[in-house]
Amino acid sequence: MAVTAASATETVEAVFRIESARIIAGVTRIVRDVGIAEELAQDALVAALEQWPESGVPDRPGAWLMATAKHRAIDLVRRKETYARKLAEVGRDLEDVAAPPEPSGPDDIDDDLLRLIFTACHPVLSTDARIALTLKLLGGLTTEEIARAFLAGEPAVAQRIVRAKRSLAKAGVPFEVPYGSDRAERLGSVLEVIYLVFNEGYSATAGDDLVRPALCEDALRLARVLQGLMPKEPEVHGLAALLEFQASRIPTRTGPDGEPVLLADQNRSRWNRLLIRRGVEALHRAGRGPYALQAAIAACHTQAVTYEDTDWATIATLYGQLVVLMPSPVVELNRAVAVSMAEGPEAGLELVDALADEPALKDYHLLPTVRGDLLERVGRTDEARAEFERAASLTRNARERELLLKRARESG
C-alpha cells in the first residue's frame, strides 16, 4: 500500500536510526572498509526514500535496508573483481588478494557489531577518534551529538571522524575481534565507547526525546557479550552492572507525554527488578575500577525503597573514590550533588562554585542546573531562576529545556 512521502520519510529515518549500526556492520563484513560500508548504508537509505512512497513500507523495513545495502556491496565487490580480471588479461601484474578468512577458533565471536566496535577501536587511531567513530557507526549519532557527548567543538569532531575512517582504510585494518594481548589492550577503549553509547541513549543530548531506548539496548547487549567473552575481567562486569542498574530505571524517567521525571519523583515500584538482580550479580564479580564504582553508586539508588532512604553519605564517599581514579569536572559535579544531599546544600554549593571556571563545563547545561537547584534549596530564588534559564539556553534536548524553563517559572 502506498504511503505519503512525508510518512515514508519519517519511517525510513526512524528505522535507519535504529538499524544503521547493524547495516554498517553487516556490509563491512563484505567490503572490509567501514567508510565504504557507511556510504553503502546511506545509499540504501536514499533508495528507501525514493521507493517506499510508491511501493509502501515493507513488512520488515530493517531487513529491506540491510538487503539493499548488502546487494550494493556485493555489486561493488564484483565490479572491482571484474576490473581486476580485465587488467590481468591485458598483461598487468595485479595480485588478487582474497579476503582474510573468518577466525574459527574457540574464542571467535560471531557478532558483526562486536567486530565493528573492535575495528573502530583499533590502536591505529587515537582514543578520541576511536570513541567518536564508534559512536557514529554503532550509535548512529550525528556529529553534533557526539560533540556534545565529548564536550568538544563540532568541527573538530567531524574532522576526527573523517581522519579516522581514512586511517583505518590506509592501514588495512581487518574486520575482526582481536585475540590475545591485543584484545586486552583494546578493551578499555571498547568499554568507554559502550558506556558513551548507553549514556547517549539514557539521556539524549539533543532532539525531542529524553531517552533513546534502542541505543541503551545495543550498549547493554554488547556489555553482556563482553561478559561472556572476558569472564575474568572485573571491569567488564563493572560496566555491565552499571548499565543493568541504569536500564532498570528507564521506564520511569519519562512521563506519559515524554516529559522528564526527576529521580525523587520516579515510581520505584516500576523499576525493572530483573535488571536490578542482573546488576547485583555483575557487581559481585566486579572489582573497584571506575565502572565498578559507578555501578556501586547506581546500586545505592536501586536499593533505596524511597528517595528519602537513599544513602547519600555512601554515594558521596564513592564519588570521592571515583574522582581519584577518574579525575573529571563532571565527576566532581556529581560528587557535589551527593555532598549536598548528605551534608546540606551549602556544602554542595561551595563545591559547585569551585567548578565555575572549568573550561570543559563552560557550555555544560548541568552545571547551572545543579547550581540552580542548590540556590533554590538555600532560598536564593532569584539567582536560581537565572541559573535555570541559563541551563535551558544551553541544552539541545527539547524535553530538558521545557523542564528547566518550568523550574525557572516556578522558582520563588
Q: Key terms for this structure?
A:
2 strands, single chain, mainly alpha, 412 residues
Taken in chain order, the helices and strands follow as HHHHHHHHEHHHHHHHHHEH
Strand tally: 2
DSSP strand content = under 5%
Molecular shape = globular
- In helices, the fraction of residues equals 55-70%
So how many helices? 18
Record the strand order, biggest sheet: 1-2
Kindly name the structural category: mainly alpha
The whole-angstrom Rg is 24 Å
Poorly predicted ranges (pLDDT <50, ≥5 residues)? 90-110
First-to-last CA distance:
55 Å
The average pLDDT value, as a whole number, equals 85
Topology:
Elements lengths: L4 H27 L2 H22 L5 H29 L22 H9 L6 H11 L5 H8 L3 H18 L8 H23 L3 E2 L5 H17 L4 H15 L24 H12 L5 H14 L8 H14 L3 H15 L1 H9 L12 H12 L3 H14 L1 E2 H13 L2
Parallel strand pairs: 1-2
Brief digest:
With 412 residues, this protein is mostly helical. The protein has helices at 5-31, 34-55, 61-89, 112-120, 127-137, 143-150, 154-171, 180-202, 213-229, 234-248, 273-284, 290-303, 312-325, 329-343, 345-353, 366-377, 381-394, 398-410; strands at 206-207, 396-397. A two-stranded parallel ribbon has the order 1-2.
Characterization of this structure:
- Helix 2 crosses helix 3 and helix 17 (381-394) packs antiparallel against helix 18 (398-410).
- The protein is an all-alpha fold and 412 residues long.
- Residues 90-110 have low confidence and may be disordered.
- Helices cover 68% and strands 1% of the residues.
- The protein has helices at 5-31, 34-55, 61-89, 112-120, 127-137, 143-150, 154-171, 180-202, 213-229, 234-248, 273-284, 290-303, 312-325, 329-343, 345-353, 366-377, 381-394, 398-410, and strands at residues 206-207, 396-397.
